[in-house]
Amino acid sequence: MTSLLGMASAETRLSLATELEAMLAAVYREPWYQASRRVDEGGRFAVARLAHGYADLGAAGATTPGTSNSLTLFGDIYQMPGGPNKRPERQFLEQYASRGDRFLEEVQGAFVAVMFDESAGMVRIANDRFGQRPLYYSVLDDVLYFSTSLAALFAAGVPAKVSAAGMAQFFTFGQYLGCDTLYQDIQVLPAGSLLEFSTETGARRVRRYVGPWAGAHRNRTPSQWLDAICDAMVPAVRRSSSGTAGLGLALSGGLDARTILGLINHEQVDLKTVCLGMQGSLDLQCAQQMAALVGCRHHSHLLDEAFLGNFEAHLNRMVDLTGGQYLSQCIVIPTLPVYREQGIRVLLRGHAGELMHMRKAYAYSIDDAALSISSREEAQDWLFSHLQSYMLKGVPGGLFQGDYTNAMATAPREAFEQSFAELPDLEDPRQAIWHYFVNERLRRETTLSLGKFASVCDVRVPMLDADLIGLLLAAPVELKQDETIQRHILKRCRPQLLSVVNANVGAPMKAGLLKQQAAKLKMRVFAKLGVPGYQPYERTGLWLRRELDGLVRRILLDEQCLDRGVFRPDAVRQVIDGHGTKTANHTYLILAMMIFEIGQRRLGGAQPCGVRVGEVACEPA
Predict the structure, then answer these.
(1) pTM of the entire structure?
(2) Under 8 Å CB-to-CB from 25, ≥6 apart: which residues?
(3) What is the mean pLDDT of the chain?
(4) How far apart are the C-alpha atoms of 259 and 237, rounded to whole Å?
(5) In 3D, which of 54, 39, 14 has the Cα closest to residue 114?
(6) 32-82 pLDDT tens trace
(7) Do residues 393 and 171 lie in contact, with contact meaning Cβ atoms separated by under 8 Å?
(8) Contact 203, 615 (CB under 8 A)
(9) 511 pLDDT exceeds 80?
(10) Nearest in space to 7 (alpha carbons), one of 202, 184, 209, 192
């Protein structure tokens, strides 16, 4: 699937069908996209979805015979109570009608379900428990607008008013937290939630149908934990890969996609792997070796001069696909056409595997201080300190102007504390790092990354499986630091993959600690010397300083950017010059500013900060 969109109104709207087409036009990016629509004859509700055109969709969704209930399902259902069904939408609708929230808790998949009960005048929008398909919504003048794409909301007339608090989050954490977005009038549906809207009264509310993970520490030995996780991982991969035509896997030299590769039954599943990187990168070399070991087809995609020459186009497309909500280096954008060229219809990604090795988990990477946490308060302090991207460090006088400066002082902390308060009380307070990673990183950052790939094929994340995640959140911290879990899984299911180097450390997975430490040192030295086979898959900081310097200056020093009233012009110049002369590393700050500026130009333009409207409080499950 590519996009879901629609609207519901408390009053009859004669222009409903026309407005729906305008929303569709804003996200109709490829000629092979296929649209399906459902418009209520009473002028109160309309919904549409775009798919990749592999099969005829027909009307948008299913109806229940003898009732006024209809459902439009967007995404994938891997497992549903009652067993497989040739008509999953009908089954979903009927079971929800009879079992309600209990049914939603038991569904395995990545989806948004839009249900309309015309006789009761009620629209219900539910997402999966991980929120893998972001649903943006806005309620203005008793009209609910919703879509998986911000562009569709702007096309419907939702104002693109920039939120100073949202800006502060983006430039502090590199992402948004909770339900917030960059825009005042637009929120994201929380994971495992229902948005209910009455087409009779305009009343609306958001409530959770599933509570936070309890994460209770079960009485198991370490070996029992490892076996239990492996036993849950096998069916998780099977659910997302079996019976799928055109299956692909984004493969690198790390651990997560490697584990998925090792659990796929290659005698029954026709798989093609894809890896990208610069010439001489270790990831390309390792991925090719692993694909050969399991006997699947493989494609390597090189990042070369053509990537840098088309970087502006890549940046524009990335902003279009993510609504400017995602801090990205655009590395994967040139690979998007490759998936269709290679016949890949469903792409597996290795996200969420970080929960098994949290010493390598971006800003969440645990250290000795994290392992010594003994209270909830200490966990909160550690997370807030580490999640700050420090993009603004080294910018004299601050980057922002006016209300944006004021928001930087308080908004990030307030947003973080509100989202942290949603975590359950945990027996081991260190587990809060893992829980927060699921609640915020996977839900608000990873899902946007997946959206880029979803523009050309369907995307699935085998490790975002309720049974597996429940075990990973409860398992002892000592097992979830390095390669222990994934080494155990591969040793049981595909031991030959242990012999391939882990590109993150430069040594095979079966190597001992001393060999790994020596390999890390060797990898750093050889990478600096430019030795083939030891290169990283990207060098964005260097590119921004060298090949892309002209593009950076053309975008950020343009009057349109400097006169917007957001960034201090002298601070922008200092950031660019400081990065260019190597007196500071502003790689991610420059990217963030460029993404914001391009987003304003392509998505309707920034408007003055003001008061949020249309907010709906989230009720607990």
Answers:
(1) 0.93
(2) 155
(3) 90
(4) 10
(5) 39
(6) 999 999 999 899 999 999 999 875 444 456 665 556 789 999 999 988 887
(7) no
(8) no
(9) no
(10) 202
The closest alpha carbon to 181, from 172, 170, 192, belongs to 170
Task: Give tens-digit pLDDT for 333-354.
Answer: 988 999 999 999 999 999 999 9
Check if the beta carbon of residue 337 is closer than 8 Å to that of residue 313.
Answer: no
CA angle (19 as vertex; 14, 25 as ends), nearest 5 = 155
Which own/partner pairs from 556-563 qualify as long-range (CB within 8 Å, at least 24 positions apart)? 556/590, 556/593, 556/594, 556/597, 560/597, 560/601, 561/593, 561/597
* Encoded tokens for 51: 């798919």
Q: What is the CA 313 to chain-centroid distance, rounded?
A: 22
* CA 211/CA 105 separation, integer angstroms: 10
Residue 464: other Cβ atoms inside 10 A? 28
End-to-end CA distance of the chain: 28
The token pair that represents 375 in the structure block: 């209270």
Q: H helices within 111-203, ranges in order?
A: 150-155, 164-173
pLDDT (tens digit, 9 = 90+) per residue, 436-482? 999 999 999 999 999 999 999 999 999 999 999 999 999 999 999 99
Amino acid at 366: I
158, 138 contact by CB (below 8 A):
yes
Contacts of 412 (CB under 8 A, 6+ apart): 168, 169, 172, 173, 388
Evaluate if residue 244 carries a pLDDT over 80.
Answer: yes
